[in-house]
Amino acid sequence: MSYGRTTMINKQILFGSPATSMWALLWLAAFAINVNSSERKEFQFKHHNNEEMYDAILQVRDKCPNITSLYRLSEDSVEGHPLLVLVFSVHPTEHKPMDPEFKYIANMHGNEVLGRELLLKLADYFCEEYKAGNEDIVKLITKTRIHLMPSMNPDGWQRSTDDGGSDDLIGRYNAEGVDLNRNFPDLDRIVFDNEGYYKDINNHLMQMVDHLSQPVQPETKAVMQMIMSIPFVASANLHGGDLVANYPYDASRYGNEQGEYATSPDDDTFKWLALSYANYHADMANPNRMPCRGGDTNFGKEGGITNGAKWYSIRGG
């Protein structure tokens, strides 16, 4: 296991304004996968290789064609693997006003595999439970549109797998050696710079992004285009590592590497959403659990949540 930010949710965990009741229901669904339901399903909760991952996505699409659609992002990975997103909704191919859009992305770091398996299982669970008439899932699929992207970095996954997991950094980056969780435009810095001078222009920032520390990778570009084309109200990014729900801002205002709480305008909302997630988890908010490694922060004593910059600051997440 690599020691990234979180086992369940990482940078960009919650992004945008919430449709709160649907968000809470979506959190609940993510943890409602239980042994009894999985026993009557064909899905195998296992480590899927890239081809098996694509097959699992297609199988869910074929089992529930009326509530799913599948799309391929505008760019493939560096090594040509398609970046696929499975959508759940009673109107899976189109956005409808007032029906909130949600996004889950996993496997941004190729050697962090738990999230990709959880999203594959969640997709199968949504399909089976909708067909079984589960009232919560039927309500969720009827009133929202949910996008599941099990792998943002299939190239990194392949490299880490070929290596056999002997090094916890191999496969973390994409095939060009770039950390995709540092490759997005640093919108936090633009916000911070504008706060003292241009208080009225912090809502439309993309036109102000004119340079990056590294070239935008195809995987990053594809996700950026998805984000800009679909009005997501909230998102979660699943990583491997510590057990904590991390919420914005991720970058510090004053350059401190850690320990500096970076408050966003939606801080109270983000904190509430993170807590609603952590409290549904069996262990995340447990104050008596031990940290993942000696010397690590015991996030259980903090409710299982953290502000990103307070934990440690990153730019381009």
Automatic annotation (TrEMBL):
Which part of the chain is the Peptidase M14 domain?
Answer: 46-317
- Biological process per Gene Ontology, one example term: protein processing
User: What keywords are annotated for this sequence in UniProt?
Assistant: Carboxypeptidase, Hydrolase, Metal-binding, Protease, Zinc
**Keyword Hydrolase part of the UniProt annotation:** yes
Is Aminoacyl-tRNA synthetase among this UniProt entry's keywords? Answer: no
A GO CC term attached to the entry: extracellular space
| Stated family | Belongs to the peptidase M14 family.
Q: So which cofactors does this thing need?
A: Zn(2+)
What GO MF terms are annotated?
metallocarboxypeptidase activity; zinc ion binding
The name on file for this protein is Peptidase M14 domain-containing protein
Organism per entry = Aphis glycines
